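Write out the 3D structure for:
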Amino acid sequence: MPKVTDSNASRSTGFDSRKLHHWIAFGFGSGLAPKAPGTFGTLAAIPVYLLMSPLAWPYYLGLVVLFTVIGLWACDRTARELGAKDPSAIVWDEFVGFFITMLVVPYSLLTGAHGWLWVLAGFLAFRLFDIWKPWPIRVIDERVEGGLGIMLDDILAGIMAALTLLVLRLLF
């Protein structure tokens, strides 16, 4: 793969297309969006989620764990190379947070007439908690560094969003 050196995105984000961990951390390039990279990262996670959603729950959960471990490595290494605590262009944490959010939505709900509403609800709930950062997410975001800090606040946002979807499932 050729190195992206002549784009403004590369200069401002430090993205190096020769490095696998950059592709992962930058969410396959979705984190290079000039505005709202976290939102674009979450949007980019939706097709991946839709590919994963038919899997039996243990396999889905196994992928989420695998993607979390990979994210800890990729986000930590990329952030260290960029010399920043949590660069906004690193969005793999949004992928994992969204996958966690959607853990509570069975595939059978997605195949119904209103399945897209569950994806939209998951997207909105996750983005709300990721942006708002209520306690303890804000504390983690401020105090934990490295790949763990990058990933953990979004993992917690995903858990809170998943709980929100569980409430919605009970109500509807």
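DSSP finds nine helices and no strands in the chain.
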